[in-house]
Specification:
354 residues; mainly alpha
């Protein structure tokens, strides 16, 4: 049972309610959703084109700042609201080859096929199951007392800051399992995984730090610095949103033994109690890829994310009805909670009192 206060009848009722919400949304999908995602794609493309133009042809610091802002916003939209959500299959029903979950390739160093494996299959199946979900701590962060402490954990607050600045690289290398690799992994398997990552990373580095600076001629240093800054801003923003959805205080973890005989209702309860939301307005939700509704995303990962705001009040009411936590809060409060948890986990456990 995923929560001690629930009976089997409660879990079955929660499953029926959430299955019903899902059916309602699926039945209602249509032109409104198609217009929405195509509109976001247009905005992201125009933002990227405008930002790059300002960086390449602008003069002075004002146009540089505007160019970086436009390009960073476009990269955030492309990664969060478009790439992440498209690759979840949220728009496969449109039968649009440019929005296909199986062929979409996004604008960062992470190979899409590797992401689809470790995120869609592993993370969303084993959400917050210690030892199974590598997204919980990314293989090197200690966030729970149940996780063994190692001296390396002393520097995990500093490593978190570095990861935030280089987040696309952390995401890109995640499936390589370089930290705490599986014991049966051999060099041939590692090389097989490395090839697509290196290929994708090389294309991204070429585009942002060779091709576009070269096209700018005398403005090459300006474009190089602008692209670097836009990627940094996108990385930090994505890191903050993702961490706030997964690691604040109150987010629960689970033991692999709890998955034995797990029903869909049990899985729903695990998502409800193992995720957190971030409060905000429509623009904030858009820029977060609607992952500010991480609870609803974990419940319904393949429903269009812009629908989560409509679903959230019903999910929150369901949680209250059965006495389940619905973790949510402002961005600063949630991230402060995350960082406190990271600091606590960095310290060695106190010796047991006899």
């Amino acid at each position: 049972m995923p929560h001690p206060t629930l009976t089997r009848a409660d879990v079955d009722a929660i499953q029926a309610t959430l299955d019903g919400i899902r059916r309602e949304v699926v039945a209602d999908l249509g032109e409104r959703d198609a217009r929405y995602i195509r509109g976001v794609v247009r905005v992201a493309r125009l933002g990227a084109a405008g930002g790059r133009a300002l960086l390449m042809f602008g003069i002075g610091p004002v146009t540089w700042v505007l160019g970086v802002g436009a390009l960073a916003t476009a990269k955030i939209l492309e990664n969060m609201e478009i790439g992440h959500n498209v690759m979840h299959g949220q728009y496969d029903w449109m039968n649009d080859p440019t929005l296909s979950s199986q062929t979409y390739e996004w604008d960062n160093v992470c190979d899409a096929d590797q992401w689809r494996h470790y995120h869609n299959i592993v993370h969303h199946t084993f959400t917050n199951v210690l030892g199974k979900d590598r997204d919980f701590g990314y293989g090197f962060l200690r966030l729970e007392d149940a996780q063994p402490w190692r001296p390396l954990h002393l520097v995990q607050p500093a490593l978190t800051v570095v990861l935030g600045a280089l987040f696309q690289w952390g995401v890109g290398m995640h499936d390589l399992e370089l930290v705490d690799p599986p014991p049966d992994r051999d060099l041939r398997t590692l090389a097989t995984k490395f090839r697509p990552f290196l290929s994708k990373a090389a294309r991204q580095l070429w585009k942002d730090y060779v091709l576009f600076p070269a096209l700018a001629l005398a403005n090459a240093p300006r474009v190089f610095a602008g692209n670097l800054t836009a990627n940094l801003l996108r990385n930090v923003w994505t890191h903050v949103v993702i961490f706030c959805g997964h690691f604040p205080d109150g987010v629960q973890t689970f033991d692999e033994a709890e998955l034995v005989h797990e029903t869909r209702g049990d899985w729903y309860v695990r998502q409800l109690t193992g995720s957190a939301n971030i409060d905000g307005g429509p623009l904030f939700h858009l820029l977060s890829g609607n992952l500010s509704h991480q609870i609803e995303h974990h419940l319904f990962p393949d429903l269009p994310a812009h629908r989560y705001a409509e679903i959230a009040p019903r999910v929150r009411a369901l949680s209250a009805r059965y006495g389940l936590p619905y973790a949510t809060g402002g961005l600063l409060a949630q991230y402060a909670s995350v960082f406190r948890r990271i600091v606590r986990g960095s310290l060695p456990p106190l010796p047991a009192v006899v």
